[in-house]
Structures are given as structure tokens and as C-alpha cells.
Amino acid sequence: MRITALVSLAAAVLAIADASPLKFSPKHGHAVPLTRNPNYRHNTQAQINKMNSRYGNIRAASTGTVPLVNVDHDIEYYGTVSVGTPAQNVKLDFDTGSSDIWFPSSTCTTTACKKHVRFNSATSSTFQKDGRKWNIGYGDGSTASGILGSDIVSVGGIQVRQTIGLATAESASFGTSPEDGLFGLGFNTIESVAGVKTFLDNAIAAGVLAQPVVSVFLPSYRRNGGVGGEYLFGGINANHYTGSLTYINVSQKGYWQIPMSDITYNGASLGQSAQGIVDTGTTLVIIGTAAAKAVHQKIAGSVFTAATRTQSAYWSVPCSLQSSSDNVGFKLGGTIFNIPVADVAYEDLGDGSGLCYSGIQGGQDDLWILGDVFIKNNYCVFDQGTTPRIGIAPAKY
């Protein structure tokens, strides 16, 4: 999968109020076309290092400010968001593992900012000053900071007035990121500035969503060439999954956190369970140390490489498994949702060993993280209704 995908967004403004699926057609919303970047080269070791910095060992009861991800992912999904009047377009990474919306201000003169679209608030007739300062620190030492404001934010045709973070300073490491900033889809309890409402909060309150949901279909390069992905705001696209959705209630608001009752291999229990989060901002699946060992003990030829001063510990598996029909499953809400072992063989180490980095890594010994390796195989509906929940069904290609 040597692509960077632009996530297409869709917004369903329907005349129904329940969380029922729809047969999607153009009248139900607006989609932004997906674009492939065939020249992007991913770096799994860098991704593993970043994931250890992203969360550390996040706690099941954690609240408050959370370090966010440097959006230089191995495989990245981002979409175009319009801000202000007249509209200025920015490319943002949609992230259910954080809640802030931010991007560079035109007043930012750092090298990193100059490599991205910078929002000019002075030319927007709908911009309103806020004045509060915000700052974000990352585990790898990178930082961004600036001031808050508010403006009209449009996503797939859904428009609300939204508090935004305008970066006036960014550290150099942001310069390599293809996205201009971040679009958080988590709960407001993990906003960097207390009291700020999320885009979903405001869209639901304004009544502009037919259903209080955002549904995610991430494309798989292996399964369909990496085309056709979308974030659907306000609806559920039944064309993108098979069977029916299984709903699991959120156990702790902040992240989209749910109980994970087991891991299976070809349907057989491995006796591993934990609380975990479903996170579109994470490329890999990151689970506990013991759980990762249990999984890889079932995969012949797996190799564990210990951490050094310059790299995190990691699991690798034979690249030949990219033709395997085996599955690693996660039991959620009583249903097993699979990741094909063909996707566990993630990226060639490039050392002639015939080994690939595994798409399932260990070291996350509190909350597990089901990232894009899981989500591209399983359609996910993030439902922020009265009882927040996640609906999951096998993805259909």
C-alpha cells in the first residue's frame, strides 16, 4: 500500500431521525473524490515509534488534555474542509482519537507552516476572535501553539460555526506532513482547551445532521486498490458493509472507548481482553504486550525485535502471508470482527529477510488501539446519540 489517500467526505441530511442504514445515492449527501498519491513511501518503524509517543500507556479513566498525533502517518487518510467566507480549503486528518480542530494561521512564519495552506482570518467575513491561547505537545518533542477563533466550518456540505485553533508556531517536524492540520472527532472531554465544543457537538445541537453519527469507510489498497473511501456525516451507507451492524456502547467518553472481550485466531479464543479505543488517527493495531505475543505465537515465522536506543520494539511476520486466508479476530459486543492475516503482513522490512512489519504491535498495556488496519476491514459508525456507541460490520468492497 504505497499510497496516501484523501478521505472523501459525505453528509446525509435526511428526513429520518433513527440510526437506520440508507441506500446511498447522490441526493443523500455530498462526497469529495478520493485521490491517490502513488509516490508516497511509508515507514512502518517510524509509525511504531510515533505510536509509542502518541499515547504512552493511556488510562481507561483518563480525562483532560491528551498529546495528539503528528499526522505524518505511513498510510494517511485526509479530506478537504472549507473554512470561512469566502471559503478557504484545508486538508485535515480526521481523527476519532482526538477532539481539536486546528491548522496554520497566515501569521505563522515557521518553515513548517509555510509548507502548508495557512488560513487567513482577515479575509473571512464570518471570522470571530476568541483570544484564548492553546498549545499542543507531542511525545516526540514536536509542538504547535496559537490562538483560538471561530468561523463557519463546512464538511461535506454540513456547515456549523466552530471554534478552531489557529497555529502561529509549529516545530519543524510538521513540515513533512501532507495534511495541513487535524479534525478531531472524539468527545469534548479531551479538547485541549476546556469548554470548547466539538464539530459533532455543534452540528447535533444545530440540527443539521439527520442522525448524530459519522460513519467511516476506509479504502484498502490490497482489496480494492485504495479507492472509494469516505467519512459520512449524519448517515450510514449500507453499500459499504455486509450483514447488520453490531452496536457496542461506549464505556468511557473521551476517546471512543469500548470493551474488547477476546482476541481470536481463525475463530479460536486466545484468552485476551481489555478496554480499547477505535481510532481513525492510528495506522496500526496496538495491543498489550502479552496479547501481541499470543497473536504472533499463532503466526508461523513471527519474530520479535527488542527495543534499542533508536527504535521501539516491534513484531515482524513473513511477507508471504500476504496471500494467507487466516484471520485475527477481535470480539466486540459478542461478535468477532476479523483482520485478515494478509493485512497483518504490513510492510517489507527491506533488509532481504523476507519479513514484514506486523500490522498488530504490542506495548499498549492499558487501552488497546484498533487503528486503520482494523477499520479498513470493518465499517465503523460513531454514534454520538443519547447513549454513545459504535456500530461495526464487516466492510464490503
Automatic annotation (TrEMBL):
What start and end residues bound the annotated signal peptide?
1-19
Look up the record and give one Gene Ontology term from the biological process aspect.
proteolysis
Q: What catalytic activity does the UniProt entry give for this protein?
A: Hydrolysis of proteins with broad specificity similar to that of pepsin A, preferring hydrophobic residues at P1 and P1'. Clots milk and activates trypsinogen. Does not cleave 4-Gln-|-His-5, but does cleave 10-His-|-Leu-11 and 12-Val-|-Glu-13 in B chain of insulin
Residues of the active site: 95, 279
Q: Which GO terms describe its molecular function?
A: aspartic-type endopeptidase activity
What EC number is given for this enzyme?
A: 3.4.23.21
Ranges for domain Peptidase A1 come to: 77-393
The protein in question is named rhizopuspepsin
Q: Which organism is it from?
A: Linnemannia hyalina
Lineage, opening ranks: Eukaryota, Fungi, Fungi incertae sedis, Mucoromycota, Mortierellomycotina
